[in-house]
Design a protein that fits this description.
Length: 364
């Protein structure tokens, strides 16, 4: 028989730490992240880390009619991959990308970012690794990491569990706001490639690769691959904001669709007016191998793949045909291997995929 568990000793005074929340660990974590936060500081920031609220003095002299734009998001179950592999330094980049790449769909410049980390137990080194990725992402897009929160949820989350969410604020001139009202038939679709999943579809990806296919995180991602399953699943998101903002200066950009959950069909129509249809030409961009592996191992049908994943395009821009070449040059100059992937036509509102199949029909 198994011996009964010893009864807890209730004779000593109760403390927060004994109950599962270590305030001292939280303070050590804050000390570790201070230099990272400082590395993102913009001149508009007032005060410093530790204030009850972040202060940001918007320079209204720079704008005629400034409009603030906000977005919030998380990294979903990509956090479970980071947790299982002990690799925490890049997932913060994904968090920034999910938020600020929504802002730029309105044409906005990101100004500041706030993060929120909930965990079962604050382990200072792990918290610092998570925030290092957030700071990296903020530096890439020119936003300041204005504040954040680490919440220790003992008894609700396991000691090694965490979740990561963020909130971003940007600014755009009122008459420069992008959107469906600007899009017209004849606009060119420009695609911005994504080498991986970014932060979408991870529940399906983990189910297929780890459970159905029986692969481990350290397994080769496919036969002959030089990358592991973990490498592919933790590939950091491309931050599209700097490239898109460069294109806004060089070209007449009408709208931008961030391809996240819902895929092409769920996101491109959000940037189209009624009476316009996006024609997406398959075969104009490369679909990363990892998507084909998920499809093959899980026998996932093509419609489901297109609904869940970005299939190698993380963003689609609608650009005036007269300035599409200038937009491509600006995007490529910013380090994005942008390609023309289709056009806007008059027709029923929605998306039509044309051209060769993304995968051979006998791939399953």
């Amino acid at each position: 028989m198994t011996a009964p568990a010893p009864s807890p000793d209730h004779s000593a005074p109760a403390t927060y730490a004994a109950a599962g929340v270590d305030i001292d660990a939280g303070e050590r974590a804050v000390d570790l992240i201070k230099p990272m936060v400082a590395s993102t500081r913009r001149p508009e920031v007032l005060g410093g880390l530790g204030d009850f609220g972040g202060l940001f003095a918007l320079d209204t002299a720079r704008y005629r009619q400034p409009v603030l734009v906000s977005a919030t998001d998380g990294v979903g179950t990509k956090a479970a991959v980071a947790q299982a592999t002990g690799r925490f330094t890049t997932i913060g980049i994904d968090l920034v990308a999910m938020c600020v790449d929504d802002l730029v769909c309105q044409g906005a410049e990101p100004l500041f970012f706030l993060d929120y980390i909930s965990t079962g137990a604050v382990e200072p080194a792990r918290m610092a690794e998570l925030v290092s990725g957030v700071a990296d992402g903020c530096r890439q897009v020119g936003a300041t990491l204005l504040g954040g929160e680490m919440a220790e949820h003992a008894g609700i989350m396991g000691p090694d569990e965490f979740d990561l969410v963020g909130f971003a604020v940007g600014v755009v001139e009122r008459d420069a706001i992008l959107g469906s009202a600007r899009v017209v038939p004849g606009d060119v679709l420009i695609g911005l490639p994504s080498p991986g999943l970014r932060s979408n579809g991870y529940t399906l990806a983990r189910h297929v690769l780890l459970e159905r296919a029986g692969l481990g995180f350290d397994s080769p991602a496919w036969d002959g691959a030089t990358t592991t399953v973990a490498d592919e699943l933790l590939l950091p998101s491309v931050l599209y904001t700097p490239g898109v903002r460069a294109a806004l200066v060089a070209a007449e950009v009408h709208a931008v669709a961030h391809i996240t959950g819902g895929g092409f069909a769920g996101n491109i129509p959000r940037s189209l007016p009624e009476g316009c249809r996006a024609i997406v030409e398959q075969g104009t961009w490369e679909v990363p191998r990892i998507f084909g592996e998920i499809r093959r191992h899980g026998q996932v049908d093509d419609a489901e793949m297109a609904r869940v994943f970005n299939l190698g395009l993380g963003m689609v821009m609608m650009v005036s045909s007269d300035t599409a070449g200038a937009a491509l040059d600006a995007l490529r100059g910013a380090g994005l291997d942008a390609v023309t992937v289709g056009r806007v036509e008059a027709g029923e509102h929605g998306v039509e995929m044309v051209g060769p199949a993304l995968w051979p029909t006998d791939d399953n």
